[in-house]
Amino acid sequence: MMDQSIKFDLDLIKRYDKSGPRYTSYPTALELHEGFGELQYHQHIVKSNAAGGPLSLYFHIPFCDTVCFYCACNKIVTKNRVHAVPYLENLCKEIAMQGVLFDKHRTVNQLHWGGGTPTFLSYEQMKQLMETTRQHFNLLDDDSGEYSIEVDPRETNDLTIAQLRELGFNRISLGLQDFDPEVQKAVNRLQSQEQTFAVLEAARKEGFRSTNIDLIYGLPLQTEQTFARTLDEVLAYAPDRFSIFNYAHMPSRFKTQRQINEVDLPTPAVKLEILQMVGKKLTDAGYVFIGMDHFAKPDDELAVAQRQGKLYRNFQGYSTHSDCDLVGLGVTAIGRVGDAYVQNFKELDQYDAAISQGRLPVFRGVELDADDKLRRGVITQLICHFDLSFHKIEREFNIVFADYFATEMENLHIMQDDGLLSLTANGIKVKPAGRLLIRNICMVFDKYLAQQQQQFSKVI
């Protein structure tokens, strides 16, 4: 059995607490550029079809009824549901344009609706979107795929959950963040326990195979005690997974965060107390640390995939489908097709203009070179499995690891001295004290990091 324990070393965390990427991709999205356009995307789709294999689809639904002050997502805040109509029309047109480019024999093993708030759409609209997708892509009919959706419990009820299950969704993620009423007021997200747990129970009743709860630590007015109460309340309902994110306060980049009173934010010391409490409570409750703020029950697919060495990481986080090319659909959506990442336009008017002209709404992208693919392989293995076989990398990429990464090995020796990892002639094993700092270990292999450091949030 794989050791999935974590060790909270306050001194190490303080010394290594600096800004860095979350590595949902390597290179990160900051390396995407406008020199990569629709023509290059077409070329990579041709290569992807030649290689074959299943697909993953991501749909971005940007609408929200109210604004949460902490949010860093690309969203459109409106109470007018009519605004979704032209967007949905454009999204269906994009599905048709993208669908014709991909081999119809390629099954869609993974599908995800994110946002925003996907359930901002009516049932009729959601049904139209799924039917259009099924018309142009090869969706599975036997419920064996990983078809997931993010929901806001304030926008969801028993009927909605039954409808989502009918549409083919079998995994669900519920946004919560915190139950404390003062914290909820401070971030403009008022949400009751009754709303939240009614949705969770309805999802179980309808046969959703995995339930996830999203929480955020580091929000204004949070303390270790208040967040512990929220965690205890959620643990009583035992969701299959937890995503517990560190709030990154970057008001210069995200305008909505300017409405947060900075003096109310917990100090770094308090955030560390919360993090330590979270790790202990969840592991004591039987959850395993997947990595990067994620915990899961031992029998959950993520935990099983990690133990089997099959875990992967993409733009939606941890995944069990490393074999899938990812097609991003909708405004600002990012995909990974073949050896390229591609992103749609971020602004709604630009997205609309491209679709109206019959063009794919490609805004920017990047083609990975041999070094990128090598470093991606190293980082993915470390961030998903906490160990790395030099021989496996050498065989796959035809290099001598110690020679190619001579400079990086010097930094790894320092981390070994600090107790984050152990180095042998065969590879790297991340120790329990290093697992919370896995981003730091991955950063050693990131050749782009120096010029981009200021763009990222703190690792803890």
Automatic annotation (TrEMBL):
Q: Any idea which UniProt keywords this protein has? A: 4Fe-4S, Cytoplasm, Iron, Iron-sulfur, Metal-binding, Oxidoreductase, Porphyrin biosynthesis, S-adenosyl-L-methionine
Q: Which residues bind S-adenosyl-L-methionine 2?
A: Y70, C71, A72, G116, T117, Q177, R189, D214, A248
Example GO BP: protoporphyrinogen IX biosynthetic process
> What residue stretches are annotated with the Radical SAM core domain?
49-285
Q: Name one GO molecular function term.
A: 4 iron, 4 sulfur cluster binding
Q: Which locations, inside or outside the cell, does it occupy?
A: Cytoplasm
Q: What is its EC number?
A: 1.3.98.3
The record's InterPro entries line, in alphabetical order, gives: Coprogen_oxidase_HemN (IPR004558), Coproporphyrinogen-III_oxidase (IPR034505), Elp3/MiaA/NifB-like_rSAM (IPR006638), HemN_C (IPR010723), rSAM (IPR007197), rSAM_horseshoe (IPR023404), rSAM_sf (IPR058240)
What broad class describes the main subcellular location of this protein? Answer: cytoplasm
Positions annotated to bind S-adenosyl-L-methionine 1: Y58, G115, E150, I334
Q: Which cofactors are required for activity?
A: [4Fe-4S] cluster
Residues binding [4Fe-4S] cluster are C64, C68, C71
Q: Which pathway is this protein engaged in?
A: Porphyrin-containing compound metabolism; protoporphyrin-IX biosynthesis; protoporphyrinogen-IX from coproporphyrinogen-III (AdoMet route): step 1/1
GO cellular component entries: cytoplasm
The record's remark on the cofactor is: Binds 1 [4Fe-4S] cluster. The cluster is coordinated with 3 cysteines and an exchangeable S-adenosyl-L-methionine.
Mind telling me which PROSITE patterns this protein's record contains?
Answer: RADICAL_SAM
| Reaction catalyzed | coproporphyrinogen III + 2 S-adenosyl-L-methionine = protoporphyrinogen IX + 2 5'-deoxyadenosine + 2 L-methionine + 2 CO2
Q: Which family does it belong to?
A: Belongs to the anaerobic coproporphyrinogen-III oxidase family.
Q: Which NCBIfam families match?
A: hemN (TIGR00538)
* UniProt xrefs under PANTHER family: COPROPORPHYRINIGEN III OXIDASE (PTHR13932), OXYGEN-INDEPENDENT COPROPORPHYRINOGEN III OXIDASE (PTHR13932:SF6)
- Oligomer and partners: Monomer.
Purpose = Involved in the heme biosynthesis. Catalyzes the anaerobic oxidative decarboxylation of propionate groups of rings A and B of coproporphyrinogen III to yield the vinyl groups in protoporphyrinogen IX.
Q: What is this protein called?
A: Coproporphyrinogen-III oxidase
